[in-house]
Write a structure and sequence with these properties.
With about 325 residues, the protein is α/β, with parallel strands linked by helices. It is built from twelve helices and twelve strands. It binds phosphoric acid mono(formamide)ester.
Length: about 325
């Protein structure tokens, strides 16, 4: 596997989920696979879970790990071609990427949407520069449009907790004070549909996601209708995707906060969120602290999803 952005990069998804179960049962089973191999994890944006879980996954496989926070301690990087670099950016990404590739065997990149241009974000321009110029296998650790390590961990979690073969899974928009990327909801929808779940997406008008990720889902503006009979409720905020309002916050409607009353509409659903989460905005304290909240096991499964992905990349070197 040379790149990891989408479920199809894993091939047979059910086989990958089976492999995740085996890794979870013995996460050190391949502790020699990464001997004398180095993972370089590059962060253009902040992280807690991805930073820790991906390092842990690499260590499970016996790899060495280098972590670089591009904006703290490295030269500030120019990403546009054809500019006169007379500002505060000392190095161009086009030199920095192959240099970084020369020090490692696999590269993970976190680089969020900038909301300056939808075309630019949806071309995954920065991640593509790593894929094209590093000479190394590259995996997204949340890039402009996708967060596949999170979505894979979400599926592992649903498989562990589902009470019927094809659960009703609801992805619901919830309010947030800032504009957030669509990467998590895009990937969650894409992976849930790839797994064959009965997926409903609920959001206020104006928050339609890119159809490339949601085709096959039931989409509604009525959150209560969506929640009825749900087995899993996945809450997330995202900013508008539409060309006219790309990256904008169109609503802070607090009636979309996932509360105990909202969860009472469901089929005793489990609550999920990728974290970090704003309590009182996305979800109430009683829901996230309830026995039906899966946010902690979901985060813990990030180690498992990353171990499977790094293992596949090491086996293909
Ligand atoms: N869910 C997730 O990716 O968390 P971090 O942003 O803390 O890595």
């Amino acid at each position: 596997m040379r790149t990891f952005l989408h479920p199809q990069d894993l091939g047979d998804l059910q086989a990958a989920l089976q492999e995740a179960r085996a890794i979870k049962a013995d996460r050190y089973a391949h502790a020699n696979l990464g001997k004398n191999r180095t993972a370089l994890l590059i962060f253009f944006n902040n992280s807690l879970r991805t930073r820790l879980s991906t390092q842990k996954a690499a260590m499970n496989l016996g790899m060495n790990v280098i972590v670089l926070d591009v904006n703290q301690g490295a030269w500030r990087l120019e990403t546009e071609r054809g500019v006169v670099m007379d500002g505060d950016k000392s190095e161009h990404l086009l030199e920095a990427v192959p240099v970084m590739g020369s020090y490692c065997d696999v590269i993970g990149v976190r680089t969020f949407a900038r909301f300056e241009s939808r075309d630019d974000d949806y071309s995954e321009r920065i991640l593509r520069q790593f894929i094209d110029h590093s000479g190394r296998p590259v995996f997204s650790m949340e890039s402009a449009t996708v967060h596949p390590l999170q979505a894979f961990a979400d599926l592992i979690t649903i498989e562990e907790h589902k009470r019927k073969a094809r659960p009703k899974v609801v992805l619901t928009w919830a309010p947030h004070p800032k504009a957030l990327p669509q990467a998590v909801p895009n990937s969650f929808a894409e992976w849930a549909l790839a797994a064959g779940y009965d997926l409903t997406i609920a959001h206020p008008e104006g928050y339609e996601l890119c159809e490339d990720f949601t085709r096959g889902a039931h989409i509604t503006h009525d959150q209560d209708e969506a929640l009825r009979g749900a087995d899993f409720v996945y809450a997330k905020n995202w900013a508008a995707y539409s060309a006219d309002h790309y990256g904008q916050v169109l609503s802070r409607d607090m009636s979309w906060t996932v509360s105990r009353d909202k969860m009472a509409l469901t089929h005793d659903a489990a609550f999920m969120h990728c974290l970090p989460v704003r309590r009182g905005m996305i979800v109430t304290d009683d829901v996230i602290e309830s026995p039906r909240s899966l946010v902690i096991p979901e985060a813990a499964n990030r180690e498992i999803s990353a171990t499977v992905v790094l293992k596949r990349m090491l086996q293909a070197l």
